[in-house]
Design brief:
Blueprint (H helix, E strand, L loop, with lengths): L1 H30 L10 H12 L7 H21 L4 E3 L1 H10 L11 E3 L4 H22 L3
Antiparallel strand pairs: 1-2
């Protein structure tokens, strides 16, 4: 009886360790954004391909949708760089679930972040503004 319990416990521990390792690898895979971002020059191609799939209501829709996609891409890079967790919400999420892309009638992107990341976002904003102002003075020779 005691031998069976030891064997069962060893199997349970071994299985738990294997599952922990697999889950850690999956978590790391998604944290690095391998599925959601591509840091190469192909990003423009992906946006243009996405624009072909998004239905339009009038001629101005595609330029607006392009701007929204580039904005979302820039936010995604910023959030990834500064480790800010976010998710899409409201009409953006509904459009994604219904159209698997932006909704043709959506005029903005709805993004939410955790409240605990708000101070970090404020610090990032200050840093980016400081970098922008510094680069403008350097570029203009001031």
């Amino acid at each position: 009886m005691m031998n069976q319990i030891k064997t069962y416990m060893l199997r349970l521990i071994f299985t738990s360790i294997i599952l922990f390792i697999i889950n850690s690898l999956i978590y790391d895979y998604y944290q690095r954004g391998y599925l959601f971002t591509n840091r190469s020059s192909n990003e423009t191609i992906f946006i243009e391909q996405a624009l072909e799939r998004i239905p339009t209501c009038n001629e101005q829709d595609q330029s607006r949708q392009r701007a929204l996609l580039y904005t979302l891409q820039a936010w995604s890079h910023l959030a990834h760089t500064y480790h800010i967790r976010y998710w899409i919400a409201y009409k953006t999420l509904a459009g994604y679930l219904h159209h698997y892309d932006l909704a043709p009638y959506d005029h903005d992107i709805d993004i939410l972040i955790m409240a605990k990341h708000t101070p970090k976002l404020i610090q990032v904003k200050k840093k980016i503004i400081h970098q922008f102002i510094s680069s403008r003075f350097i570029h203009n020779g001031l």
